[in-house]
Design a protein that fits this description.
Helix content is 28%, strand content 15%. The chain contains four helices and six strands; from the N terminus they run βαβαβαβββα.
C-alpha cells in the first residue's frame, strides 16, 4: 500500500565515499519522491555495470542529478529551494525549523562531513544537527542521518 500524499525534497551528497550509503539513500529517495543529487568526485563507480552488480534494481527509477562540483551544484540549486546543511557542529537542532516542499538537505562526505562552505557553521541559521546524547559517538551513519532528516521533513509537511 502506498501513501497518496507526496512532497518534493532534495538530498545532496557532497563527494560521497561509501557506495552502500549512497545505495541506501537512493532507495530512501525513491520511497519518498525525493531527488538525489550526487556531487563529484564520487568514491565509487556508478556505471551501469557497477550498479547492476550491486543489485540496485531500483536505480533506474531514481530521480538522480549529478553535479561536477559543489560550486556547480550551488549555482544549479540556488533558486530552487532552501538549503539546509546537516553537520554535527551546528547548534540548531533538526527539530527546530519548519521545513517546506522543495527544501534541499545537504550532507558532506562520510569522513569529513560538510566543511569550508560559506553559510555552514555552528551558528549558521541554515545548519542543522541531529541530537546525540553520548559524546562517545562521533557521528551517525550517513544513510541513517539522511533518513532521520528526510522523514522529519515528510512528517512536518505531509502528516501535520
Amino acid at each position: 500500500m502506498s501513501d497518496q500524499k507526496s512532497a518534493s525534497f532534495h538530498i545532496a551528497l557532497v563527494e560521497p565515499q561509501i557506495p552502500q550509503n549512497t545505495g541506501n539513500i537512493g532507495r530512501l529517495c525513491l520511497a519518498t519522491n525525493t531527488t538525489l543529487h550526487l556531487v563529484h568526485p564520487l568514491g565509487f563507480d556508478l556505471s551501469e555495470k557497477a550498479v547492476r552488480r550491486a543489485g540496485l534494481d531500483y536505480w533506474q527509477h531514481l530521480d538522480l542529478v549529478e553535479h561536477e562540483s559543489f560550486n556547480d551544484f550551488l549555482i544549479w540549486s540556488e533558486s530552487k529551494g532552501r538549503h539546509w546543511y546537516i553537520t554535527k557542529f551546528a547548534e540548531q537542532s533538526l527539530y527546530k525549523p519548519e521545513f517546506q516542499d522543495g527544501d534541499f538537505f545537504i550532507f558532506g562526505k562520510e569522513t569529513t562531513g560538510i566543511k569550508n562552505v560559506d553559510g555552514v557553521g555552528a551558528n549558521a541559521g541554515n545548519s542543522l544537527r541531529i541530537p546525540m546524547f553520548d559524546d562517545r559517538v562521533r557521528s551517525l551513519n550517513l544513510a541513517n542521518a539522511a533518513s532521520l532528516v528526510l522523514y522529519e521533513a515528510v512528517r512536518q509537511t505531509i502528516y501535520q
